[in-house]
Design brief:
By secondary structure, the protein is of the alpha/beta class. It contains 14 helices and 14 strands.
Length: 385
C-alpha cells in the first residue's frame, strides 16, 4: 500500500491534505470543537432551520409513525405515502408538474444527468459546476464541453460549433455557485437553450429557501419556471434537513423513476427526514423574515470586507475572500480559529491554483455584531502574515 503513503505525503507536502473536524456540539450558529466554542462560518444552515422546533417535532412524529428507516428502495417496499406527499409539496413549491426525491444532492445530480444523456448526446457545463454534476456527465458517456464561468458568449460559440453533431443536448448550470457565491445570466442562457434546442437543468442547492417571492430560488425570482426544464435542489442547506429533489414535467419524472440508477438502487429517505423536509418548506413560506434578515446581514458583511480592502466575490450568502496563496490562506484560517472563528481554507483541487480563499457562509444566526467582529479579526489576521 505504498502508493497510499506516497499520495498522502505529497498532499501534506503541498499543504493540500484534507482532514476531518470532530464537532462535539452545534447550537445557534456556533459549534464546539476540542472543547472550544467557535462561530461557525462554514455551515450551510442558511436560515437557521436545522434546530427549528417545527422540524424537530415533525421529524419525531414521522419516526414514531413509520419507524427509523424506510427499509427498502422506493421501487420495493420503501415507497411510503409521505414520500409522495413531500413530492407533491416540492412540485407545488417549485411550480412544476411533479418532483422526485433523492438521498442526497450528489445522488440526484449523478442520477439525473446519467439518465437524461447517453453516448451520442452532448452536455454543455459551466466550468465551475459542482463535482457531482461533472461526475454525472462522466457517468452518462455523453460528450461534454465546459464553457467559461457565466460567459454566455463562450457558451453560444460552443453551441454554434458543436450542437448539430449530437442527438440530445443538455445545458447544466447552478443558480448560486458554491465557491464563488455568484449567479448566472439565467435569462440569456434560457434564450440560448431555446434557440439551439437544448434541455436546461439548473442546480438550485444554494438558492432554495433564500431567493424568490416564496423562497423557491433564483428560477422563481426571475420568473423562468416554465422555461427551465429541470430544477434540482437540496434539503440539506437552507432547508435545514437532508436529501434532494428534482422538479420537472410529469413525463420527465416518470422517466427518471425508470432510468435514474441512484434513485432506483438506493434505500428511500427515512421518515424522520421526510418530516423535517415537509416542515422546512412550510416555514420558508410562512417566515419570509428569515431570508430578508439573512440577505440584509450578507450585504452588511460584504460591504465591511470591501471597505477593508478584501477581494470578495458573489452576490449571495456565500462570500469568498480570495487570498491567492495556499500557505497564506491556511495561516489566516488558523488565526481566525484562534479567535474562535471557524472559517475554512478552500484550496485546490476544489478551486484553481492561485484562487485559494477563505469561504464565509453567512447564516441567519450571524448578527451584524458578530460579522463586524469577524471582519476585524480577518483584517488583523491578514495584516499579521
Amino acid at each position: 500500500m505504498e502508493w497510499i503513503d506516497r499520495f498522502l505525503q505529497k498532499r501534506e507536502d503541498q499543504l493540500l491534505l484534507r482532514t476531518l473536524h470532530n464537532i462535539e456540539k452545534r447550537k445557534g450558529g456556533n459549534i464546539v470543537v476540542d472543547g472550544k466554542e467557535l462561530i461557525d462560518l462554514s455551515c450551510n444552515d442558511y436560515l437557521g432551520l436545522a434546530a427549528h422546533p417545527c422540524l424537530l417535532q415533525e421529524s419525531k412524529r414521522m419516526a414514531e409513525g413509520y419507524g427509523t428507516s424506510s427499509s427498502a428502495s422506493r421501487l420495493m417496499s420503501g415507497d411510503l405515502h409521505i414520500h409522495h406527499l413531500l413530492e407533491e409539496v416540492v412540485a407545488d413549491f417549485k411550480g412544476k408538474e411533479a418532483s422526485l426525491v433523492f438521498g442526497s444532492g450528489f445522488l440526484a445530480n449523478i442520477g439525473i444527468i446519467s439518465a437524461i444523456c447517453q453516448k451520442g448526446d452532448v452536455v454543455f457545463s459551466d466550468r465551475l459546476n459542482h463535482a457531482s454534476i461533472i461526475d454525472g456527465i462522466l457517468l452518462s458517456g455523453a460528450q461534454f464541453f465546459r464553457f467559461r464561468h457565466n460567459e454566455v458568449g463562450h457558451l453560444e460559440d460552443l453551441l454554434k460549433k458543436e450542437r448539430a453533431k449530437f442527438k440530445k443536448a443538455l445545458i447544466v448550470i447552478e443558480t448560486i455557485y458554491s465557491m464563488d457565491g455568484d449567479r448566472p445570466p439565467l435569462k440569456e442562457i434560457v434564450n440560448l437553450k431555446e434557440r439551439y434546442n437544448c434541455i436546461l437543468m439548473v442546480d438550485e442547492a444554494h438558492a432554495t429557501g433564500i431567493f424568490g417571492r416564496n423562497g423557491a430560488g433564483i428560477v422563481e425570482e426571475e420568473d423562468l419556471t416554465h422555461e427551465v426544464d429541470i430544477i434540482m435542489g437540496t434539503f440539506g442547506k437552507a432547508l435545514g434537513s437532508y436529501g434532494a429533489y428534482v422538479a420537472a414535467s410529469k413525463k420527465t419524472i416518470d422517466y427518471l423513476v425508470n432510468r435514474a440508477r441512484s434513485f432506483i438502487y438506493s434505500t428511500a429517505l427515512p421518515p424522520s427526514v421526510i418530516g423535517a423536509n415537509l416542515a422546512a418548506i412550510e416555514i420558508v413560506k410562512k417566515e419570509p423574515f428569515r431570508r430578508k434578515i439573512l440577505l440584509e446581514h450578507v450585504e452588511y458583511f460584504r460591504s465591511l470586507l470591501k471597505d477593508k480592502g478584501f477581494n470578495t466575490r458573489g452576490s449571495s450568502q456565500i462570500i469568498p475572500v480570495v487570498m491567492g496563496d495556499n500557505k497564506k490562506t491556511i495561516m489566516v484560517a488558523h488565526m481566525l480559529r484562534e479567535h474562535s472563528i471557524f472559517a475554512l481554507p478552500i484550496r485546490p483541487p476544489t478551486v484553481p491554483k492561485g484562487e485559494e480563499r477563505i469561504r464565509f457562509s453567512v447564516t441567519y444566526h450571524h448578527s451584524k455584531e458578530i460579522l463586524y467582529q469577524v471582519a476585524e479579526v480577518l483584517k488583523d489576521a491578514s495584516n499579521g502574515i
